[in-house]
Fold each of these.
Amino acid sequence: MTDDTSANRVFESLAHPYRRHLLLALLERNPRSDDRLDPMDLLASGTVDGLAVTTLGVIHVHLPKLADMGFIEWHRDSGVVSEGPGWEEVAPLCRLMRDHRNELPEGWLHESAAPGRDRD
């Protein structure tokens, strides 16, 4: 993050619980750029951090927003998500949140959004 504009974009990407959930899941499931994540898998429970998650919101709001920011690549036809060209801009904060999730205020991260608790 090199300036206020960059920092604002990163914080905006993490502002909504679904986007945090997706970015943290991508962090865990996509250590290489060729791995893929199906964002609809995150809809299985129907809620993220107590908020209802709908296919409409995911497809028309959250995925396009993250793709426009360059943090993810979203292939609408196949429904898969991978790291975008700007991934390394948001990844350090995702790692920080994941690694310090027990120190964050309650409700910032849903436990299922941050798998790998015992990872080295």
Note: Helices lie at 4-14, 17-29, 55-69, 87-99.
Amino acid sequence: MSLLSEFEDIVKKKDLVLLAVATELRSALVKATPVDTGNLKASWSPLIKTDNGYRLSNTAIYADIRLEGYRIINGKQYGSLKFPEGFRPILAKYGEILQQKLKEIKWV
């Protein structure tokens, strides 16, 4: 096997890992999304392939507030007591999963 074909194989494996983890992450985020009216849960976009991997977003105007979790800033409450940690723990978990799976790829 040539060095070029080995490199191409690694790139394909990396892309498959990125897609698999991004798909699992999206599923976990949708499942964990708290429901009041259902708008936040319904506002998750499909995965979009980019030059660097995959992009996932939520189009609800208050999605960023939920991302951060519950907090009080200058006496004003942000987020929800029903979802106090926000999405950060899920993102951290899947960041670790992605790092581990990428380490498992045979790098020439």
Note: Residues 69 and 86 are 4 Å apart (CA to CA).
Amino acid sequence: MINKDFAVCIILNKKNEILLQKKDMGYPWFPGKWCLFGGEIEEREKSEMTIKRELKEELGYSLDNLKFLGIENYKDQCEKHSRMGKQHIFYHKYNGKISDLFLKEGAEFAFLSYDELNHFDIVSHDLKTIKKYYSKII
């Protein structure tokens, strides 16, 4: 089992819709599934630095207002691979338009309402994270 820590961000727009990314089919972890934006915390990197770096890399977006929500343990299984670790969770209120964002990684991205979440194939630990923290941040 691989041990990796990640930083992710729950990004809400003015309508309190959540920005999610759909992994492309060539991605080794959960191809075709929707997930929160974020990435692996690199050696000697603080989780806040990670999420800022990842959102710049994935969306071309620089964060100013970032709130730390907590740390959750996770365990993933995808085909023959398994990993576990800690997921550092952040929150950001996005006041721009989706057209101001540019997807650099993944197949697509969209703002989804809370009610729409159950109609999309979302990585289970990300869905659990969203449901746990959503009511605390709206």
Note: The two ends are 36 Å apart (CA to CA).
